[in-house]
Amino acid sequence: MSELAWWQRGVIYQIYPRSFQDSNGDGIGDLAGMSSRLPYLAELGVDAVWVSPIYPSPMADFGYDVADYCNIDPMFGTLADFKQFADRAHGLGMKVLLDFVPNHSSDRHPWFEESRSSRDNPKRDWYLWRDPAPGGGPPNNWQSRMGGSAWEWDERTGQYYYHAFLREQPDLNWRNPQVRRAMDDVLRFWLDHGVDGFRVDVLWLLIKDAQFRDNPPNPAYEPGQPDHHRQLHTYTEDQPEVHDIVRSMRATLAEYGQRVLIGEIYLPVPQLIRYYGANGDGADMPFNFQLLNATWHAGEIARMIRDYDTALPEHAWPNWVLGNHDNPRVASRVGLAQARVAAVLLLTLRGTPTLYYGDEIGMTDGVIPPDQVQDPAEIRQPGIGQGRDPERTPMQWDTSLPNAGFTTGRSWLPVASETSVHIQNGDPSSMLSLYRRLLKLRRNNAALVQGAIEHVAAYGDVLTYERHHRGQRLFIALNMGAADAEVESREGVVLLSTFAGRDGQPLRQGANRLAAGEALIASV
Ligand code: GLC
Question: In this protein, which residues make up the domain named Glycosyl hydrolase family 13 catalytic (predicted)?
Fold first, then answer.
């Protein structure tokens, strides 16, 4: 497997730092806590950890509002703690990826404080400032993704500034070469600190229309949907010039050897794959989020896998994501039984899988009482399903009450459910054991890591496909339905089933029975 880069062979695990492990009793996770749990991740069998933002921040958007790109928020620890965390991860054979948030800073970042101080401040043009529209009011109709106009009036200097998210998150002006240089320095700062790559926040939003034209209305908008769906984002997203920025980020990383550039990009596949660039000069992996809101039906998933595989350019390495801190958890989307099937799917598809913390124990979305809501997305547009607290609840380590071993203090969000690492640890039929077995199998079978994916098909509720590599042929069958089903197969041996006790059993030539919610991997 040596010709592949580590990020092609490996499995990425996302940590949401506020919720992983608290070490000082303040109810919020921190670096020392994360470090103490690294052996757990090594044992789980993942290869890289991506850590959501840990930079100094007023936490208006829980760290996605950065006030200093080159430091650590005291809530999480210090630069020395980060170094310890990275060293420990590296010592255990895991890579460390940081979240890079270049689209916007915090309104408390010194750059913005300078920029807003006067119209002729040298950093004025580092952000997007505009005069009011001729008749007064915001310069154009652009909407914030958190609801309402994306323009905030600044009394002192008599202009509006643009914020794609909260008003506390002003967008930087990526057409300004000084901004580009400053952000390049940020990348270098962390690369020099031994970071192995970045997940780039909202990469497809970095550049906005130079003429600030109004976005057209969205003909498919339905009342009750978030404000932001009222428009097509023709002039605020996926502008052609963004690819030039991606190329320059990629070039900086290339100076440091094998480092990975991952882009957070919510776009349909034809636009998404452009972010790979030409001949590998773009992002290594534009995140493929299709599974996050896929209809959980074998035929749908089969079509999605085939279309993605066909669309990918020759040089492009695929990837799949099952969960993250912005979307409902897989166990809540498809149910606990199918979450096991989803685990097999994620870890047997062609391409790098990204796991979201807690999914390996089947954590479900938490229920957040109204007076405990934290997410600004929910606070600004209550009740329309934008709130992300449910998928950000504390990692459930053990049976201790009320915080499952996450903190000895008062947790910033309530614990979601009763299950825990401790409960599942020694149980061969648990979700955790399934993930461990899957990760091990993947590691030991080149066909799962670099084999071609072939014969992707759906028969009723059963999805099947094969992975081939140098004479090894693996057959994967997933029963995505709630009833037993039959699946046609060659003769072979079951290497792993979601049902404990089937491993090692023969697979007959012809029809084989798959229990409801069973998924298996067989050598055929
Ligand atoms: C990304 C992050 C999300 C954040 C937003 C603004 O989508 O994943 O959590 O709110 O960017 O930074």
Answer: 14-392
Q: What is the pLDDT of residues 475-510, one digit of tens each?
A: 999 999 999 999 999 999 999 999 978 999 999 999
Who lines ligand 1 at CB under 6 A?
61, 64, 101, 165, 201-202, 264, 325-326
Q: How far apart are CA 163 and CA 208, in angstroms?
A: 11
Q: Is 201 a catalytic residue?
A: yes
Helix, coil or strand: residue 402: coil
Q: How many CB atoms lie within 10 A of CB 109?
A: 25
- State the Cα–Cα distance between residues 412 and 76, nearest whole angstrom: 14
Q: What is residue 239's predicted lDDT score, i.e. its pLDDT?
A: 98
Residue 237 backbone phi and psi in degrees, to 5? -135, 155
Q: pTM for the full model?
A: 0.97
Average pLDDT over residues 263-274: 98
Per-residue pLDDT at 2: 56
On whether the CB atoms of residues 412 and 21 are closer than 8 A, the answer is: no
**pLDDT single digits (tens) 211-258:** 999 999 999 999 888 888 999 999 999 999 999 999 999 999 999 999
Which tokens go with 344? 């097999």
Tell me the C-alpha distance between 384 and 377, whole Å: 10
The CA 430 to ligand 1 mean position distance, Å, reads 32
Token pair 């089969």 is found at 302
> What are the Cα distances from residue 323, in Å, to 54, 144, 177?
20, 24, 35
Task: Residue 261: name the closest of 306, 196, 344, 205 by CA.
Answer: 196
- What domains sit in the chain, N to C, each tagged with a CATH number? 6-103+177-208+238-378+390-439 (3.20.20.80), 110-162 (3.90.400.10), 452-523 (2.60.40.1180)
Average confidence (pLDDT) over 8-30:
98
**Among the options 61, 107, 201, 360, which is catalytic?**
201
If one counts every other C-beta atom within 10 angstroms of the C-beta of residue 92, the result is 12
- pLDDT > 90? residue 386: no
Q: Is the pLDDT of residue 292 over 90?
A: yes
Query: Candidates 64, 104, 325, 379: which one to mutate for ligand 1, based on the most atoms within 8 Å of Cβ?
Result: 64
Q: How far is CA 465 from CA 458, 477, 486, in A?
A: 9, 7, 15
Q: Give the number of other Cβ atoms within 10 Å of residue 491's Cβ.
A: 11
Burial class (CB in 10 A: 0-12, 13-18, 19+), 80: exposed
3-state secondary structure string, 12-34? EEEECHHHCCCCCCCCCCCHHHH
Residue 385 has a pLDDT of 81
- State the average pLDDT for the chain: 97
Res. 3: pLDDT tops 80: yes
504 to 212, 339, 512: CA distances (angstroms): 62, 23, 15
Report the DSSP beta bridge partners of residue 453: 467
Our CA angle for 146, 151, 152, nearest 5°, is: 100
The secondary element (H helix, E strand) that includes residue 421 is helix 421-425
Q: How far apart are CA 342 and CA 480, in angstroms?
A: 9
